[in-house]
User: Fold this.
Amino acid sequence: MNWLFLTLAILTEVAGTILIKVSAGFTKVVPTVILIVFYLLSYYFFNLSLKKIEIGTAYAIWSGLGTVALAGAGIIFFREQLSVDRVLAIVLIIAGVWILNITGSPKGV
Assistant:
């Protein structure tokens, strides 16, 4: 269940961040209100995930996968350029998150 909460934290944070761009500098009221709700939900779900997941691991996964998702969203929704450097950075982020996940502390510690 904690991993589900972390996943929801990532998804709501990504949605909120996308809405920052849509809100046009907080000049559009509806996207601004929705992004605030998404950020509040993101922190709520992140808090729930920390009951069983180490904070360093959870935060690395939250920020790393959020960064990867936002890079993808930028390419898909905002026509940002995909470059070799960007792909390499995304691969390194995913590798780091994977390594953190498989090398976490042993069960029961």
